Protein: Sulfotransferase family protein
Amino acid sequence: MTSMPQVLVLGFCRTGTASMRLALNTLGFGSAHHIGRVMNNSREINAWINLMDAKFVHHQELGRAELDPLLAEFRVVADVPGLLFAKELVEAYPDARVILTLRDPDTWLRSMQATLIPMLAPPPFALFTRIACLLDPSGLGRFIPFARRTLELVLGPLDEIRNNPETAKGRYLAYNDDIRALVPPDRLLEYHIGRDGWAPLCAFLGREVPEALDFPHRNDARSIMDGSRKQIWGIYRRFARRAAAFAVVAISLWIGFGQR
Structure:
């Protein structure tokens, strides 16, 4: 098995990248690197933050020496944080095929407004998120600012987008144009989840069409929000259990000392 990325899924968030990951896994490419693999790994979050600082703050050149430690074990790279390094990925892995997942801009914007933007930008959902981050500083408290930064590096400040959604749509379209300008046409497949099916993807990758299988669909807006809420309420439940245990110990000690 080749230990380097063979497929780069550079479509932006909420364009069907999760469904594309499942499709590529079905075609034999294995699991992908994506934001979900970073979420509960503070060491990897720190590594990506260092790369983001190197590129966007210090304007350093990055290549395989920097990318391989994070990506070499995967044959597919999809979604953020990888797409922030689209130019570096395309140059570092010249044999990799590139897929640009696309979505109608208005539909994409509505999906963002229903999921990622309210989850990462105030208000209203962010109040509960912020409290959860304080209760879980090394987990969710580390991940949420990281995830917000990854989006803002492409779309701009999320607070601004809440007030002027059309700004996000324009930047989304500009991002897609940047990918088209970056990748040679013979390496690039523009793909619409839910419309194009297996045939163009398999032809592009040189794989046989799995006739017996429907193209996968995953990670719709509701599942994202439900998953986020479950994680946050899980943090609250763990905190409540710890607080209750502490209260029992404290009361026991108080009673014990009071009887002396």
User: Anything to note?
Assistant: The two ends are 70 Å apart (CA to CA). The domain at 7-258 is CATH 3.40.50.300 (Rossmann fold). The chain is about 60% helix and 5% strand. The chain has one domain: 7-258.
